[in-house]
Each structure stands twice: as C-alpha cells, then as structure tokens.
Amino acid sequence: MDKLNYFYLPNSVFDYGLSANEIGVLAVLCAAARNNVVQISQKTIAEKLGIKKEETVSRCIRKLCGCGFILAQKRPVKIFIVKSKNMLQNVEIISQ
User: Fold this and answer.
1) Per-residue confidence band for 46, with pLDDT thresholds at 50, 70 and 90
2) How many domains does the chain contain in total?
C-alpha cells in the first residue's frame, strides 16, 4: 500500500463564511505545497475543482487574501506559496 498523503487546513477556515469554491482553492493550495513552496496555475486549480472559469479562482484567491489565509503579490498565472504552521504566508501570482 502506498504511503498516505494528506495536508492540514486551519480549523478557522469555517469561521469566515467561505464558499465551497474558496475552501476548495485553499485545499488545493495546501495539498500542492512541497517544501513550503507551491507552483500551480489558476487553470490547474480550476480543472482540479471542476470550476469553469479561471476568474472564479482569482476571486477565491482574493477572498482568501482578505481573510488572511494567504498573502498575494500579483504578477499573473502561477502561484508560489510558502506555508507556515497552519497558514499560507506568501503567495505570488505570476503571469506568463
């Protein structure tokens, strides 16, 4: 049997009235973190969650920033995340 692979979400995720899509985006970002860094496109996030528009992912990221789950520096399409404890600290969105 393969080693179980899992990630943590902060319990406070349920205290902010987040939508299912917002929780899903946060979950994808947490799951994709390797050595405190994530490199994933908004398109990939949308595909993993069955979201039709990348704009929806962008809105979710903005909401997660507003709630303090992630901090973003805009640059457009890829996301790099540094994870600290139960919170995502640095997110850089880079366009091509």
Assistant:
1) very high
2) 1
